[in-house]
Model the fold of this input.
Amino acid sequence: MVPQQSIWVPYGSGMLEVPALPGLSFDVVEPKPGLAIDLASSLEECLQQPLASVPLRELARGASKVCVVFTDSTRAAGDEVIVPAVLSELARAGVSAQGVTLVCGIGMHRPTTVEEKRAKLGDAVLRTYKVVDSVPQDHERLRYLGEHDGIPLWVFDEVVDADLVIATGIVEPHQYAGYSGGRKTVAIGAGGEETIAASHSPRMLERPGARLGNIEGNPFHELITTSAKRAGLRFIVNIVRDSLGRVVAIGAGEPTHAFAELVSTARNMYEIQLAKQYDIVIAGVGHPKDTNLYQASRAATYVYFAPRPVLRPGGVIIIPARAEEGPGQGLGEQRFFEALRRAPSPEGLIEELRNRATAAGEQRAYMLARVLAEHSVIFVGTSCPEAVRACHMRAAETMEEALQYATAVTRRDAEVLVAPHALLCVLRGP
Done:
């Protein structure tokens, strides 16, 4: 962590400058740099020598129905390279193209477009294989897998009915699961709405252990691990990226072992100890997570729900994000927006959602309301300022305008922390 004079943060696919206003002091934190690897060649080695598993080609031999669950467009999981390589191994194992279904685990996000599937998989895969989105609300297309900790487990039938389930994913900090990864792609990405809603309810999210960066004793992590195992997940291929978007690690094999190996790598990169608290945090997001308010608002909750507090009381969080899709186009995103829009105050929404069953998507409104009850959040350069204000936040056209407001509610000589890649940071206050 070093002081900077010229500071830039991600804004869409570009960058936005943070002006060094007089009287303010700035510190910048970044995940530790990684050593870039060649994904294609490293993937080939991983598939031949997976962790705690026989090679995929051997594992798939004799299977007549294989399901590959991949991530949607909000996750840069390297699917464009990984999925074709996995399919090649399946073909070498004797699995026909007709015996393979590719499922995009959309969770409660909007369905993916043909263009997004093409970008993820390529034309050749789309022409040859069955590619579908999961359908969280169609009970006729879901399979019940029993309960875990009182929560019903539902997963898309294309997944559960397969002889072999494989999942892709990206291991990075996650608000509830500790770290995202392969089991989440199946359990939540391909999960049913009832499971998603119950697992993301305030009852779960307020439990000890369900925290950013935490795996041990994390009830959310345990739930999705159980669900994915019951759904038949036997092999994952996951990556870790650094803050420059470069792939720095890849792991393939038995889900628990491969995931644990990558979490160890991710922790060394992403977890950052701070020497002090700050008045203002500028939390960068960047493409593709800043395309809507639902995703981009995670930056505020990552700061607020850090393992130890980062902001001083009454501090301000600034998020540069164009949010060209507004609140978001999926049902979960719309529920997030409506819950905040109709709430008289963040405090009122917290009380409401603690005392009734929540629908999938409303958990993000609840978490953001927790932030807003104590701190101001400002979106900079957003294309949907009215939606931002409807969610009890402020909209500023420029970073300078946002900083001027922030210092008006904190102090003129405010200390500012800039986290250009806030969703890749597990910040620990002093």
User: Anything to note?
Assistant: The domain at 39-269 is CATH 3.40.50.11440 (Rossmann fold). Residues 230 and 409 are 50 Å apart (CA to CA). The mean pLDDT is 94.
